[in-house]
Amino acid sequence: MQLVLRGVPAPMLQYRVVRVTPDGRAHVVARPDLAWPEYRLALQYDGPDHLERARRMKDIDQDDQLRAMGWLVLRVMVSQLADPDALAERVLTELRARGWRP
């Protein structure tokens, strides 16, 4: 909500990014916390559990898969939520770079 109040277009919550395998089966690659699918932009909030090695490795693999599909993933930690203006500007900058116009 803080982002939308600062001019960021409304995101989709827990959007399912799906990749179709060569045999025609759909596979959910990721469910970003916030997503702007039209612009292939995802925002992931990383809580303390994301610092654990196994979880971090999973996040890296997921980001690689999304990048291969043309997505950009912005990762945010709790300290960055304290400055919603800076976060909104970061998201708006990436949306503009991907063709969004207000």
Automatic annotation (TrEMBL):
<feature type="domain" description="DUF559">
    <location>
        <begin position="35"/>
        <end position="95"/>
    </location>
</feature>
<dbReference type="InterPro" id="IPR007569">
    <property type="entry name" value="DUF559"/>
</dbReference>
<dbReference type="Pfam" id="PF04480">
    <property type="entry name" value="DUF559"/>
</dbReference>
<dbReference type="InterPro" id="IPR011335">
    <property type="entry name" value="Restrct_endonuc-II-like"/>
</dbReference>
<protein>
    <submittedName>
        <fullName>DUF559 domain-containing protein</fullName>
    </submittedName>
</protein>
